[in-house]
Structure formats: structure tokens, C-alpha cells
Design a protein that fits this description.
four-stranded mixed β-sheet; binds ligand EPZ; alpha+beta; globular; UDP-n-acetylglucosamine1-carboxyvinyl-transferase, Chain
Length: 461
């Protein structure tokens, strides 16, 4: 096998591969067992919201344990485009939003990162005006922002959507949002976070009923409170925010990424390997750990912030229904499906959060899985082996699922569409290599399977 190139991480400063560059693919030779300990990075979905929340503060903010991800780099680019000063060194990001040069987020950046919509609440709260392009849908669903908009309107903002741009401004004379009682039709993570940030500087009390309870919401609330905000009840379904006139500087460290940790737990289970990981908050993974134990694996806390997975002799089938936290996380659905393709028996997976988050089924079936989709249900019939194949990632968590399947499959798997993976996993290949996996990232033209796919007539249809 060719020498394995150690892949490089995607730091903030690293220039984006130009669109016409030869895209890379991930080659995985399955069958290795893994061993050792893996370091879990900061939580992507905390980092994206917290970076946006730094816009609320007119002083220096230091954010630690920031994961090196393309999405985080893009969020930094959006703040830079708004005239905010950012400096990154290793996993520390210094932000100074004392001056926000403009309140219009650039379309070309927003269209690449849904989470950039998070800037609307802080921009409105700080500037009294915000113009943010509609983030638009993505492969997993329509991703509307009606709950964000309705909440801001309840707080006194005039919000119009024209030509794909959400234009919001505060109508009150004092240019401050007003506290309001808001009920969310659905416990939307993003809407909860947008409204929490907007309410931090509003006049008076805001309550958010039927709020999202995800750990990333708590992380964001803790970050805002470290700047002097007064947010209570984050992590429950009712959040109360007493607006304050101004926030102050902070030095804050982001929680570890529960989805990355869950992905590595599945990596241990699917390769029948015992591996450990830290830092982790075990309580953030209750539903995932319960399901791993149900299918026969053991998950042990070696220390308060360290988990170890010990695989069972075989994998039993189980049913999964994705739900808002503390239910089974939708962001672990694809990874767990990869695991269940090799379990004994039939599993039913129901995706209730997003309307189109089963696109990884076709690619897993190309590897020998036996999965049928009916609406938002996937019926997984366990098979004894998966076989390596050329596959294409369709979204972030689907790409992780294909990596996991490739680690367990017989033979070589080639994964295209790595831009999805790089959005949400910090140096995944480097971490897997250190655990003993056989994989490397090469240019597509260097991969004979991809070349064959490109050249075969069928693929040109
Ligand atoms: C956040 O997305 C996460 N992203 C997602 O992680 C995660 O899957 C999701 O929460 C659910 O946990 C970030 O935090 C950056 P939602 P978000 O608003 O906020 C509907 C990953 O892989 N909805 O809770 O967009 C929506 O259509 C990503 O890391 C409305 O109808 O999720 C969806 O069906 C993927 N109107 C449901 O709510 C709205 O105004 C859940 O969406 C908002 C949402």
C-alpha cells in the first residue's frame, strides 16, 4: 500500500482549496482494530453560536477550545466581513467587536454556512438593524427560520424578507428590543439561540417557552453570562433572560463536542475495539450510551471526563428514534445506522427532526448493507460483513457514517465529498490514524477507483 500521507488539519489560516483544484478523496482499508486514546475537540455547534454571540460584546472576548473546522473558519470570515477584529492562534480565538463596521452579512459567505444566520440576533441587539441572507435549505432539509423571525418580531423588531434577504430593524425610539414572552412551536436549537442572544441586550424580561435543551444552548448561555448577561434556565424547556444595557469582556472555554465523542464511541463498537476518549461530558451522551449498551457494548467512565468503550462479542439490533435533546440526537443517526448494518437482527430507525436525513442509506447499501427506506423510517437488516466500495458523502454526518462503515468493511473504501467531513470534524483522519486505522487522503485523480468512476460512461450520464 502506498505510504500513507498524514493529512493536514484545516486551520483558520489555511487557504480554501480553489474550486478547480483536484478534489481529494479518503481511502480507507477496513478491518483494523483500533486502540489507544483520542482527544475530543471543542463542540462545533457551540463554537458557531458563541462566535456569533461575541458580536454582543464591545470589548475583547477570548474563546478557548475552538475546533479547527471549515465551518468555524467561515463564521470567522463572516465576522471579519462585518468589520470585527479576529485573531486565532491554535485553538484560541480572540474577537473584538467594539466596532461593527456594517450590519449586512455577505451572501457569498452566508450561503456556504447556515449557522451564519446566528448573527442576526446580536447584530439587531447591538446595531438596531440587521440584513442577513436567508440561509436556505441544505441536503438534510428546508431549514426554515420562521421561528427565529417570529421571536424577533415579538421583541419589537420589524422583519421583512425581500429578495432572499432577512431585513430587520428595531422600531422603538430607544433602538432596543423589548423583552417578550415567546413560545416556540418546536424546540428549535437555532431559534432558541438567536432569541437568547437578542434578549441579552433587550429592555426587560424575555421568556422562551418550549426552548431547546441541547448542551450547546447551555454552553452559549454560559458564554453570554460570562460577559454579564442574565440568562437563567438554559438546559430546561423554559429560559428567562433579563436584558442588560451592555456586556463586558470574557475568557471562555467551549465544551467538548458530544457528537465527535459519540462518533468515536461508534468507531470502537463497529471495529470491535476498546478505545478511550477525553475530554467528554458523559451526561451529554446519555441516549447514545444507553443505545450502545442495549446492543451489547460497554461504556465506562474511567474518570469524570473520560469514556471508554468495550465492544460486546456481537452487536444486537435496536430501534432508534431521533428527538430533540435529551432524546437520541439526529446528529448521531447516520453514524449509528452504520453500526446497526452489522448487528444481528432488524433495526428500525426513525428520523423525526429533519425531513431528508436518510440519504446515506444508498451509499451504505453500496457497501453491502441491507436497508430499506419508507418515509422517514429506515429498516436495517443486519448483515455479516460490509465490503469496501467507492461512495459519496451527502452531508456532514453521512460522511462520518461512511468513514465508520469503511473502518469495518472488508477491503478498500473510497469516499468522495470530503468537503462535508471537513466542515464538522477536526482532523478526523489524523485521530483515526493514531488509533491504528489504515486510511489516507489523496487527490481524486490519484485514486484508481475514483478515476474509474469518472471515466466510466455510466457516470457521465
Ligand atoms: C442545530 O441546527 C445544529 N446546527 C444541527 O447540527 C442539529 O442537527 C440541529 O440543531 C438539531 O439538533 C447548529 O447548531 C449549527 P433546529 P438548527 O432549528 O438550529 C425546524 C450538524 O450536523 N425549524 O433545531 O438548524 C427545522 O426545519 C448540524 O452538526 C423550523 O421549522 O436545528 C428542523 O426540522 C446539522 N423553523 C427542526 O426545526 C425554524 O425557524 C430542528 O431544527 C427553525 C427550525
Amino acid at each position: 500500500m502506498e505510504d500513507r500521507a498524514i493529512t493536514t488539519s484545516h486551520g483558520f489560516s489555511e487557504p480554501h482549496a480553489s474550486p478547480d483544484a483536484d478534489p481529494s478523496v479518503l481511502q480507507i482499508w477496513g478491518g483494523n482494530s483500533l486502540h489507544g486514546h483520542v482527544k475530543i475537540s471543542g463542540a462545533k455547534n457551540s463554537a458557531l453560536a458563541i462566535i456569533a454571540a461575541a458580536l454582543l460584546c464591545p470589548e475583547d472576548c477570548r474563546i478557548r477550545n475552538v475546533p479547527l473546522l471549515v465551518d468555524v473558519k467561515r463564521m470567522g470570515q463572516i465576522l471579519t466581513a462585518l468589520g470585527v477584529k479576529l485573531k486565532q492562534h491554535d485553538d484560541i480565538l480572540d474577537i473584538n467587536a467594539s466596532v461593527i463596521g456594517q450590519s449586512k452579512a455577505p451572501y457569498e459567505l452566508v450561503s456556504q454556512l447556515r449557522a451564519s444566520f446566528f448573527v442576526i440576533g446580536p447584530l439587531l441587539a447591538r446595531q438596531g438593524v440587521a440584513k442577513v441572507p436567508l440561509p436556505g435549505g441544505c441536503t438534510i432539509g428546508a431549514r426554515p427560520v420562521d421561528l427565529h423571525v417570529r421571536g424577533l418580531q415579538a421583541m419589537g423588531a420589524d422583519v421583512q424578507i425581500e429578495h432572499g434577504i432577512v431585513q430587520a430593524h428595531i422600531t422603538g425610539s430607544n433602538r432596543r428590543l423589548k423583552g417578550a414572552k415567546i413560545y416556540l412551536d418546536y424546540p428549535s436549537v437555532g431559534a432558541t439561540e438567536t432569541l437568547m442572544m437578542a434578549a441579552a441586550l433587550a429592555d426587560g424580561e424575555t421568556t422562551i417557552e418550549n426552548a431547546a435543551q441541547e448542551p450547546e444552548v447551555i454552553d452559549l448561555a454560559n458564554f453570554c453570562n460570562s460577559m454579564g448577561a442574565r440568562i437563567r434556565g438554559a438546559g430546561t424547556n423554559t429560559i428567562a433572560i433579563s436584558g442588560v444595557p451592555k456586556l463586558h469582556s470574557t475568557d471562555y472555554s467551549i465544551n467538548p463536542d458530544r457528537i465527535e465523542a459519540g462518533t468515536f464511541l461508534v468507531a470502537g463498537a463497529i471495529t470491535h475495539s476498546e478505545i478511550s476518549m477525553s475530554p467528554v461530558v458523559p451526561d451529554h451522551l446519555t441516549a447514545v450510551i444507553a443505545k450502545l449498551k442495549h446492543i451489547g457494548a460497554q461504556v465506562i467512565a474511567d474518570a469524570p471526563d473520560c469514556l471508554r468503550i468495550i465492544p460486546g462479542d456481537s452487536l444486537k439490533a435496536t430501534d432508534i428514534e431521533t428527538l430533540p435533546y435529551p432524546g437520541f440526537p439526529t446528529d448521531m443517526q447516520a453514524q449509528f445506522m452504520a453500526l446497526l448494518t452489522l448487528s444481528e437482527g432488524n433495526s428500525l430507525i426513525t428520523e423525526t427532526v429533519f425531513e431528508n436525513r436518510l440519504r446515506h442509506v444508498a451509499e451504505l447499501n453500496r457497501m453491502g448493507a441491507d436497508i430499506r427506506v419508507k418515509g422517514n423510517n429506515a429498516i436495517v437488516r443486519g448483515v455479516s460483513i460490509l465490503s469496501g466500495a467507492p461512495v459519496v458523502a451527502t452531508d456532514l454526518r453521512a460522511s462520518a457514517a461512511l468513514v465508520l462503515a469503511g473502518l469495518a468493511a472488508k477491503g478498500k473504501t473510497t469516499i468522495q465529498g470530503l468537503h462535508h467531513l471537513d466542515r464538522g470534524y477536526d482532523r478526523l483522519e489524523v485521530k483515526l490514524l493514531k488509533l491504528g486505522a489504515s486510511l489516507q487522503r489523496v487527490s481524486e485523480s490519484a485514486d484508481v477507483d475514483s478515476r474509474a468512476k469518472i471515466s466510466s460512461p455510466a457516470s457521465n450520464v
